[in-house]
Amino acid sequence: MRVLLANDSSQHSKAAADYLLSLPFRRPIDLDIVSAVVPPMMIDSGTMLMPTDLGLFIDEECEAAKQRVQQTATGLNGPVHSLQTHVPVGSPSTELLNVAEETDADLIVLGAVGHSALQRVLLGSISDYVATHSGTSTLIVRPLRESSQAPSLRKIVIALSGRPEDQRMVDWLRPFKWAGGIEVHLVRILHINSFYRQDIRQKASEFWTDYLKQANAHMLGLESAIQEMGLDTETHLVEGDHIGETLVEYADEHGGDLMMIGDSDSGLLTRVFLGSTSRYVLRHAHCSVLIVRDKHDHREATQEAAAKAHASAH
Q1: What fold, for 1-146?
Q2: What is the pLDDT of residues 89-101, one digit of tens each?
Q3: Where are the domains of the chain?
């Protein structure tokens, strides 16, 4: 597995590195550590001229970033087969995505800032952008409150949707050698429309009964596959008005350490879904969040969309 680890000078970056290397990979990973250097304003607003010391500033920042990345690489103790460092100049979110594409990364790992509303706004500028626009799986590591300590991984919550990406999330667990005692909660949120008490009519219908049977059968099939990996499981069908909010509440109430959410590659609809559910979880969950994607499916979907756009333009 090829993993891209975002690196900066924050304690959350260190927690992300510790979290990544604590994962029980069956085989050593190929690791790329990336620390982007952000240039200052290119034009002086007073003179409208390029600052003369811009080049010197960027050189100094690049050197500091190289030393930091190398220090991180030297201090790593974990299942690493090969290691490369990257110090690009530009927007961190853009450069992270560029390196992920160039290296054909299977997973991007970033540290999240804390839990306040302001910090979540700041998170949105980089982690949220990368998680939304990445073509590969993305793990946002949220440390324990007021701490640089990496969170534990004893309870995983998998948010099911009834779509093919549910199986993708189960398959994502296979490259790991899990220790005993880890719980995996398979959770399917049943959307209930309580507006004008429509939920009463909804739940009384024959369709609702069939829907419950199908959802339960789907969960049990996935549960069997996870149990074969030696993991303890629980399955829950939970009713709620808001899928994202209900998922966050479930993770809080059950002490979830990691929330897994699948992302499909259905063009613009993918981003709509991410905005309504995955992005809500990403911004509001108090635990780490993993958005699971198939990079090959994403690449094919992107190429297909580009071909359609080209055809319509001509």
Answers
A1: Rossmann fold (3.40.50)
A2: 988 899 999 999 9
A3: 1-146, 152-314
